[in-house]
């Protein structure tokens, strides 16, 4: 909470130096950023601010574009939903990327039809996560082999997504039917129990799962009062001194 | 009082400009005439010196002149070359150039016009490629991929920033030190300092046009957004800065921050509108209409109490639309789209278009709009959900789903979405926090939690805010 968007605790110094200097525009740094993306994929952390810098390099130098890295960045940014990271990455991709594939694949010259297909598929996932249609998310993920290829490079993708889903659930749920939760997490039986009790620390009670109270799911009423500071009156007070009536 | 100065000065400058334009034309003409003579008569060196300075002044002024929108391609190319040689001269001469900027607004005008021309050139090039019916222009554009190139534009802006050490100077000022100590040979000159400063705002704009909203905000790290800031003395710069900062916030889903930005500048514009005249006011009122539209969008995402004057003006301008936006649901989608189209910046794509595949050159606006609309669709049921929950303290989920005629599973999703979206990052003034900093806040007065199928609802009531009202009336009476 309260972490600036451009800060990442896991970012190495040399990446930081590039990001804060003009080298962020230097096409030669592309490979350094690409390696960094690979590191993030393996190390289960996400540095969106650095990844956006790489997408910007691609935006300026389309010939350097590596489709795989782009999709990896997008998949990584799915794992930090509901933050806007996925959308911010999409904004930096070529404008035709979201036009329906049927249009662009009809053209033999359109070399990146596979990329736009992949990006649109990932966008579907992003929208499902955004709309909190978690069971639809898991069934979509299983529905197409392309998804398996796309997420293959990102270590622990499903686990990372599950943790995020659990987080959003814990914000608004105190008790939930086991069946519903199973479909939301895409887990059954033993794996389900292990995740819910082990990772989340929730309690399974027969057919319901209890989420311990936290600040978010308490939903306590309150009255917000105005916070008055003496500084707000400084002008009035000063005038009283300056213009003695 | 400060409002008066702010509003009036640009107007005076406009008058100056028309004289200056004439003067520049005369100088230009004089130069041409003398040029022919010079080849034969070896001119006296002192004369040529004086004339060179003259010529430079006219070039400086010419750089700040708006280019006609319908100017033919050759003129656009020539204008690019002029900028290149001017900036080359300013940046790469032997040491700092000894020139006084023609006016206080000159530096802003130059950077503004430079980026405006870059922007319209890119849009034009993209349109030519998309329509693919003007072979001649396609050929010209194809052969000059680097004219008005993104790298060269950024290069100019970054070089001006670096040469003038403006970021170092601003950081020193923030610490309360004298900027002169870190200004260096270049930065201590008004010409460089001002060009450097406005280049930062130029960068904010370019990044935003390219769809890089986080970097746009990052660019302003060293600039303090307050009335004492240098940009505040130039009305156009002032409103441009807040427009782009606000827009970037909106695209990062930080609606509370976006509203804060738009409100600040719109209140300021309202206060000074009596002092602005004619052409300048036209462009500013166009910009402020756009910002009202953006406020309407942000308020729909993040219902909040607006400043009274802003609220009144918003209802006047976009009353019907605002109502539909706030009601949500599929009927609100066309309104979101309409307002976004009317109010967004003219997005560009940085690289030359693909002339061989006209279909691939989608207008960048459509791209950004599509992404934005996905977010709108994700949120469109929140107003409905909230309007019902407001009526109860506990509610059965299945019953509510029945009222809304949706499946319970869908409704659960909506409830989760609304809860997520009511948590927002908001900027906090801690003295040195950048625009990208912020704390997560609960941006909603309605809170709820689900216990199985029971929804527990609670409301955070806001006590009346009296201080503002009290102060305003106090100021009025004495």
From TrEMBL, chain A:
PCI domain span: 46-227
PROSITE patterns: PCI
GO biological process: formation of cytoplasmic translation initiation complex; regulation of translational initiation
A matching Pfam family: CSN8_PSD8_EIF3K
SUPFAM superfamilies: ARM repeat, Winged helix' DNA-binding domain
Protein's cellular compartments: Cytoplasm
Ribonucleoprotein in keyword set: no
Annotated GO MF terms: ribosome binding; RNA binding; translation initiation factor activity
Annotated coiled-coil segments of the chain: none
Keywords: Cytoplasm, Initiation factor, Protein biosynthesis
InterPro entries: ARM-type_fold, CSN8_PSD8_EIF3K, eIF3k, PCI_dom, Transl_init_fac_sub12_N_euk, WH-like_DNA-bd_sf, WH_DNA-bd_sf
GO cellular component entries: eukaryotic 43S preinitiation complex; eukaryotic 48S preinitiation complex; eukaryotic translation initiation factor 3 complex
HAMAP family: eIF3k
Function: Component of the eukaryotic translation initiation factor 3 (eIF-3) complex, which is involved in protein synthesis of a specialized repertoire of mRNAs and, together with other initiation factors, stimulates binding of mRNA and methionyl-tRNAi to the 40S ribosome. The eIF-3 complex specifically targets and initiates translation of a subset of mRNAs involved in cell proliferation.
Family that this chain belongs to: Belongs to the eIF-3 subunit K family.
Subunit: Component of the eukaryotic translation initiation factor 3 (eIF-3) complex.
Protein name: Eukaryotic translation initiation factor 3 subunit K
TrEMBL record, chain B:
UniProt keywords, alphabetically: Cytoplasm, Initiation factor, Membrane, Protein biosynthesis, Transmembrane, Transmembrane helix
Region entry Disordered, spans: 1-20
Gene Ontology molecular-function annotations: translation initiation factor activity
InterPro entries named in the record: eIF3l (IPR019382), PCI_dom (IPR000717)
This protein's record includes keyword Transmembrane helix: yes
Subunit structure as annotated in this protein's UniProt entry: Component of the eukaryotic translation initiation factor 3 (eIF-3) complex.
Predominant place of localization: cytoplasm
Species of origin: Coleophoma crateriformis
Pfam families: Paf67
Descriptive protein name: Eukaryotic translation initiation factor 3 subunit L
PROSITE patterns: PCI
Role noted for this protein: Component of the eukaryotic translation initiation factor 3 (eIF-3) complex, which is involved in protein synthesis of a specialized repertoire of mRNAs and, together with other initiation factors, stimulates binding of mRNA and methionyl-tRNAi to the 40S ribosome. The eIF-3 complex specifically targets and initiates translation of a subset of mRNAs involved in cell proliferation.
Subcellular compartments: Cytoplasm
Similarity comment text for this entry: Belongs to the eIF-3 subunit L family.
GO biological process: formation of cytoplasmic translation initiation complex
Gene Ontology CC terms, in alphabetical order: eukaryotic 43S preinitiation complex; eukaryotic 48S preinitiation complex; eukaryotic translation initiation factor 3 complex
Keyword Transmembrane: yes
């Amino acid at each position: 909470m309260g972490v600036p968007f451009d800060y990442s605790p896991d970012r190495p110094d040399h990446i930081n130096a590039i990001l804060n200097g003009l080298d962020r525009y230097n096409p030669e740094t592309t490979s350094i950023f690409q390696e960094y993306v690979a590191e993030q994929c393996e190390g289960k952390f996400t540095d969106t601010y650095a990844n956006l810098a790489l997408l910007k390099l691609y935006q300026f130098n389309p010939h350097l574009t590596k489709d795989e890295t782009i999709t990896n960045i997008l998949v990584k940014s799915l794992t930090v939903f509901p933050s806007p990271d996925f959308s911010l990455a999409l904004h930096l991709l070529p404008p035709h990327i979201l036009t329906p594939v049927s249009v662009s694949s009809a053209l033999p010259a359109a070399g990146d039809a596979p990329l736009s297909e992949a990006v649109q598929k990932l966008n579907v996932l992003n929208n499902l996560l955004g709309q909190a249609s978690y069971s639809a998310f898991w069934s979509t993920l299983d529905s197409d082999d392309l998804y398996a290829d796309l997420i293959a490079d990102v270590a622990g993708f499903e686990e990372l997504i599950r943790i995020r889903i659990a987080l959003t659930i814990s914000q608004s749920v105190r008790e939930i039917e086991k069946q519903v939760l199973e479909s939301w997490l895409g887990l059954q039986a033993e794996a389900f129990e292990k995740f819910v009790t082990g990772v989340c620390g929730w309690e399974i009670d027969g057919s319901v799962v209890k989420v311990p109270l936290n600040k978010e799911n308490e939903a306590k009423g309150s009255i917000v009062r105005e916070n008055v500071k003496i500084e707000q009156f400084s002008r009035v007070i000063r005038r009283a001194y300056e213009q003695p009536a | 009082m400060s409002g008066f100065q702010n509003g009036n000065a640009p107007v005076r400058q406009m008058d100056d400009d028309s004289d200056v334009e004439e003067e520049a034309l005369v100088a230009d003409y004089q130069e041409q005439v003398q040029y022919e003579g010079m080849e034969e008569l070896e001119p006296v060196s002192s004369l040529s010196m004086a004339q060179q300075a003259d010529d430079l002044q006219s070039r400086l002024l010419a750089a700040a002149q708006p280019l006609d929108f319908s100017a033919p391609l050759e003129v656009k190319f020539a204008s690019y070359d002029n900028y290149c040689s001017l900036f080359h001269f300013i940046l790469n001469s032997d040491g700092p150039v000894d020139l006084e900027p023609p006016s206080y607004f000159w530096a802003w005008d130059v950077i503004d016009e430079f980026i405006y021309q870059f922007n319209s050139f890119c849009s034009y090039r993209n349109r030519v490629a998309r329509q693919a019916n003007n072979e001649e222009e396609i050929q010209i554009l194809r052969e000059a991929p680097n004219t008005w190139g993104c790298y060269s534009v950024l290069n100019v802006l970054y070089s001006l920033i670096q040469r003038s050490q403006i970021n170092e100077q601003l950081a020193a000022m923030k610490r309360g030190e004298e900027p002169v100590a870190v200004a260096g040979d270049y930065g201590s000159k008004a010409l460089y300092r001002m060009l450097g400063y406005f280049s930062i705002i130029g960068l904010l704009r370019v990044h935003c046009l390219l769809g890089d909203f986080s970097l746009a905000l990052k660019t302003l790290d060293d600039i303090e957004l307050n009335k004492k800031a240098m940009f505040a003395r130039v009305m156009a710069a002032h409103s441009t800065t807040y427009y782009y900062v606000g827009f970037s916030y909106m695209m990062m889903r930080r609606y509370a921050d976006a509203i804060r930005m738009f409100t600040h500048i719109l209140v300021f514009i309202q206060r000074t509108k009596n002092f602005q005249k004619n052409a300048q006011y036209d462009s500013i009122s166009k910009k402020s209409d756009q910002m009202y539209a953006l406020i309407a969008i942000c308020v729909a995402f993040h219902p909040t109490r607006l400043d009274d004057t802003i609220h009144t003006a918003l209802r006047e301008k976009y009353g019907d639309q605002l109502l539909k936006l706030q009601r949500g649901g599929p009927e609100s989608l066309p309104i979101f789209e309409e307002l976004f189209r009317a109010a967004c910046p003219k997005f560009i794509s940085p690289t030359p278009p693909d002339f061989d595949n006209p279909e691939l050159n989608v207008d960048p606006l459509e791209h950004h709009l599509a992404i934005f609309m996905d977010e709108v669709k994700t949120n469109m049921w929140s107003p409905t959900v909230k309007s019902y929950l407001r009526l109860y303290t506990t509610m059965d989920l299945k019953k509510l789903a029945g009222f809304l005629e949706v499946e319970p599973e869908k409704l659960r999703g909506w409830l989760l979405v609304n809860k997520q979206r009511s948590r927002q990052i908001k900027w906090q003034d801690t003295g040195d926090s950048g625009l990208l900093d912020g704390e997560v806040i609960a941006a909603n007065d309605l809170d709820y939690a689900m216990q199985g199928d029971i929804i527990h609802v609670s409301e955070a009531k806001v006590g009346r805010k009296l201080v503002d009202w009290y102060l305003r009336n106090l100021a009025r009476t004495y």
